[in-house]
Design goal:
Blueprint lengths: L31 E5 L7 H10 L8 E5 L22 H12 L2 E5 L9 H13 L7 H5 L3 E8 L8 H13 L3 E9 L10 H9 L11 H9 L1
Parallel strand pairs: 1-2, 1-3, 3-4, 4-5
Helix pairs in contact: 1-6
Length: about 220
């Protein structure tokens, strides 16, 4: 089962090849998994994510998966039952792709001020993967980086705070870094291309600092220390 979505839009014309300079971060041994969770193909969130991905250095591995094109049933919590390895081929593929990536990019439109149902289902599976014998999921995810990309109808991007919090806390639980969320305004198809500020930030989004994610109570403890 191929991971790359077959309806990938062409790289944006504005994309410029990344340059090598002292300010460019080291992307050696990095690999990015982009998880698309929109309910429509080639949506604004995907457009914005591909704009950002176009500015990754050449040669950095990128894998794209569209959850709409995969048969993934609703997650069933079996933590208190006898657990075993996934039997669903889609789940097995997603588990390995997720754990193998150094950087996981969640691409979701803002639906009712949170993540889409497709992305939420995918993240729910993370709970099950923590208990898969031999998967070492939490250990493999620790030290990696979680990113987010979202398009929303509002011009005031602060309303995406719930989505940002959800991703930050998920990263904090797994002791991952959190690179933040790239936001853009777009409701009608392709509208995000008119958000100049979002497109400018997209060029350097993956160059931004990605600190270790912390829960609010941990941030308070650090400040006191």
């Amino acid at each position: 089962m191929a991971l790359d979505t077959p309806h990938a839009p062409e790289p944006p014309e504005s994309a410029e090849p990344p340059t090598s300079s002292p300010g460019i971060r080291d992307f050696s041994n990095r690999s990015f998994l982009f998880v698309l969770g929109s309910s429509r193909a080639d949506g604004n969130s995907e457009i914005l994510a591909r704009e950002a991905a176009a500015h990754l250095p050449a040669g950095v591995p990128q894998r794209w998966v569209d959850l709409n094109e995969l048969s993934l049933p609703d997650f069933r919590d079996g933590r208190h039952e006898v657990s075993g390895p996934p039997t669903n081929e889609t789940e097995k593929m997603l588990l390995e792709a997720t754990a193998a990536a150094t950087d996981v990019v969640i691409v979701s439109p803002l639906y009712w001020y949170s993540l889409s149902a497709q992305i939420k289902r995918y993240l729910d599976y993370w709970s099950g993967w923590l208990n898969v014998p031999g998967s070492d999921f939490k250990e493999r995810m620790a030290g990696g980086t979680l990113w987010g990309v979202t398009a929303l109808a509002h011009d005031e991007h602060v309303v995406a705070g719930g989505l940002v919090t959800s991703l930050n806390h998920s990263a904090a639980y797994l002791r991952m870094h959190f690179g933040g969320v790239l936001t853009g305004t777009g409701s009608r198809a392709g509208r995000v291309r008119a958000d100049t500020r979002a497109l400018i930030r997209a060029k350097t989004f993956f160059q931004e600092e990605a600190p270790l994610a912390l829960f609010p109570y941990e941030e308070g403890a650090e400040a006191v220390a």
